[in-house]
From TrEMBL:
InterPro entries for this protein: DUF2867, NAD(P)-bd_dom, NAD(P)-bd_dom_sf
Sequence ranges assigned to domain NAD(P)-binding in this UniProt record: 7-122
Keyword Transmembrane helix carried by entry: yes
Sections of the chain in a coiled coil: none
Organism per entry: Winogradskyella litoriviva
Protein name: SDR family oxidoreductase
The organism's place on the tree of life at top rank: Bacteria
Keywords from the named record: Membrane, Transmembrane, Transmembrane helix
Transmembrane domains' residue ranges: 449-470
């Protein structure tokens, strides 16, 4: 089948694309920025890519000869206050475009919406589902609750909490019940529902075999990790305080923390159906899902992470708009060293940040991360998806990867920390010389004052970093 897939760079779609390619389907992948095509599928013979922004669809050209489409666009962690309107607009534009094609089925991943009092997020998901319904094609909706897998937002947040806090004083919503579902099972539902006419114009709740509270999920997660954890829940933590609690303890943004707290007050219990037998799936239990996720992490084989979504940080533009370093009105810190072992230096550059640190004065980098978090930034907690691999669009601590090409020996990062201006950090090897450039474009007087305030630290931080990159 020829399949249109949206949200190609997102957590779900990136993994689903690989599974569909294994099943020998031909994919037409929609991306907003052609510089962010995932390396895993970029050169695949069954993949083609089209540039589409479903919020601005005027120039979009969707192929007419598609058989099915996946709608996997989500705005939960966007910084916009009107994400519901954006989601409806996006869904409507997608529908209008797909109705001009030969598409017979659209598959949509939504959230379980059975509680009488739905969160703002779940209401929006239900509205999107209603918007996508059409007389031209059949809609198949899979409604999932908490998704458990390496790199998923819920998994990484629980991981942060469990591994950092031996004793927890937590909000009362930790007693809310849910039915977690492994990412592998989610992908099997999405792929297995393709082309099944008995699923046309129907919605199905998909969920794991256990009903657990969030507190039980934390404790079972701790068991899998061999950790002893103690949890006390208090009724006095308001939604706003709960959001701040999540924001400072985990790697999530405040917007996403607030959306999650709002959703976590709602019970996510699925309605029984025959969907498991139709597709032939027996969803795995929660502990098995956690254990498999850590196997992927230990193998350094995490395919996608919610942190790599552009909405996880402050960067909103297309990468191509920032790939060329600005030349005017900027401050620069430029350093150069001779490279004696190019492979060693390149590997060190490609492993920078995350658990590996920044090779010099890591304590100062951590302090800068804490300061950024205090002022509403992303801080250092996002880390990186892989310890050794980078591609354009990846989150790297409080940076965003703009360009990563080992053959060209160039890595370019853009700062997503809170700054009175814009900052770039570039590493490039030319003629056995490593060029390290920090470029800052200030905004107003505060930007200039900021540069001069941090300038004394550059001498030893950036010198130490470039020295570590060239010396064994």
């Amino acid at each position: 089948m020829r399949i249109l897939i949206t949200g190609t760079t997102g957590y779900i779609a990136k993994r689903l694309a690989l599974q569909l390619l294994e099943d020998k389907h031909e994919l037409v992948c929609c991306v907003r920025d052609l510089n962010r095509i995932p390396d895993e599928i970029e050169d695949h013979p069954l993949c083609s890519f089209i540039k589409v922004d479903f919020l601005k669809p005027e120039d979009a050209e969707i192929p007419k000869d598609i058989d099915a489409a996946y709608y996997l666009i989500h705005s939960m962690s966007t910084s916009s206050d009107d994400f519901e309107d954006l989601e409806q607009q996006c869904a409507q534009n997608f529908k209008d475009l797909v109705e001009t094609t030969d598409c017979k089925q659209v598959l949509f991943l939504s959230g379980i919406v059975n509680d009488e009092s739905l969160s703002k997020h779940l209401k929006s998901r239900l509205q999107v589902e209603n918007t996508l319904k059409s007389e031209t094609y059949a809609l198949t909706t899979f409604r999932a609750g908490i998704i458990v897998g390496s790199g998923s937002a819920s998994f990484e947040i629980i991981r942060d909490i469990v591994e950092k806090l031996p004793f927890m004083i937590t909000p009362r919503w930790l007693n809310t019940k849910t039915q977690p579902l492994a990412i592998r099972d989610v992908l099997n539902f999405l792929a297995g529902g393709l082309g099944k006419t008995e699923l046309y114009n129907n919605a199905y709740d998909i969920y794991g075999p256990e009903v657990l509270t969030y507190k039980e999920m934390l404790l079972q997660f701790a068991e899998v990790r061999g950790l002893k954890r103690y949890i006390v829940t208090l009724p006095v933590l308001t939604p706003k305080l709960s959001s701040y609690w999540l924001y400072f303890v985990t790697s999530t943004s405040f917007k996403l923390a607030a959306a999650l707290v709002d959703s976590m007050k709602v019970e996510v219990i699925g309605k029984p159906s025959d969907i498991n037998s139709i597709i032939g799936i027996e969803p795995m239990d929660y502990k098995t899902a956690v254990d498999l996720a850590f196997q992927k992490i230990e193998q350094n084989a995490v395919i996608s992470s919610w942190k790599d979504a552009v909405s996880s940080g402050r960067f909103k533009d297309q990468l191509s708009k920032h790939i060329e370093l600005p030349k005017f009105g900027c401050f620069r810190d430029v350093k150069q060293r001779k490279v004696t072992d190019e492979a060693f230096t390149l590997n060190k550059i490609w492993a920078i940040g995350g658990r590996n640190g920044w090779y010099s004065f890591n304590g100062l980098w951590k302090i800068r991360g804490y300061m950024d978090k205090l002022f509403g930034g992303v801080g250092l907690r996002r880390g990186r998806t892989s310890d050794t691999y980078l591609e354009a669009g990846d989150a790297l601590d409080f940076w965003r990867v703009l360009y990563a090409n080992k053959e060209e020996k160039r890595l370019l990062l853009f700062a997503e920390m809170r700054l009175p201006g814009e900052a770039w950090l570039e590493f490039k090897i030319v003629d056995d010389q490593l060029h390290q450039r920090a470029v800052f474009r200030p905004k107003g007087i505060w930007g200039r004052l900021y540069w001069y305030a941090v300038l004394p630290f550059h001498a030893f931080v950036f010198n130490g970093m470039i020295n570590a990159l060239v010396k064994k």
